[in-house]
Amino acid sequence: MKALFISLAAVLTFSTHAATIDQFCNQFFFQDVKVRCYKLASGKEFQSTALDVCNSFFQDEEKLQCLTKIANKEYTNGELQACKGLFSDDEKQQCLVELGRPLNQGDSRRLQAIRTNAMIGLDRLRMGDVNGANQAFNIILNLARP
Known about the structure:
This protein is about 70% helix and about 5% strand. It is mainly α.
């Protein structure tokens, strides 16, 4: 029974990943909620890892409220983890509001992170650590997204 619960939890955790706004909006069961989602997202940009935080909310309405708070904003992975780790959904949303910066304002920080992860990835490749290199290069891909 315990193994079944752990397996189910792993599947549910995996299935809540929303890398794009299409994946995020298409998760909703009711068509009217999907339409509202797309209307809220229209003309806005979203950081994929921030969408994952919104996806951690249980209720559809809370997910949509979260979507409006992360629109055209960027966060570090540490900031998103801190917000996601808070207890209540209200605290999580307030955290996203307080920590979010206008998108592309952190370009110099983003470029520095890309350079750092490129060096890490190359070093790990030289050491034969393919998984570590892949992880660093995936971070670069996420940082390079518009």
